[in-house]
Amino acid sequence: MHKNLMLTMLLALSLLLISCSKDNQTQLLGVWEADQASQKVGSEEFISQYNHWEVTEENIILKSFNFEIQGDTTIQKFSEETRTLKYIWESNNQLQIDNQTFNIKLKKNEMNLINENIDIHFNRQK
Asked: What is the reported pLDDT for 17?
């Protein structure tokens, strides 16, 4: 009897832990804003021009914004240019965006997108 209770508790705990952890594909979905980017001198990575990413199950909608001071308040002003790209997962930690492969590191509310030319750090907004 005691053994069955212990096995049931272990099974319940295992199921709880599995359901709480998200895979990278699910964790990527949402709105991300870049706060830091490093780019190799002489390289041209167009994605570094966009600091606001809205990631859906099939697309990444790229936008950029600046902060403007108006009186006593700071507002986020978006440019009119928007670009939508399809992406595919090559593995659990690699994305292909616009025919380029990027390593992706996801932690709760942070993401790094990295290839041989660029490293961009993002924070989750939604």
From this structure: 44
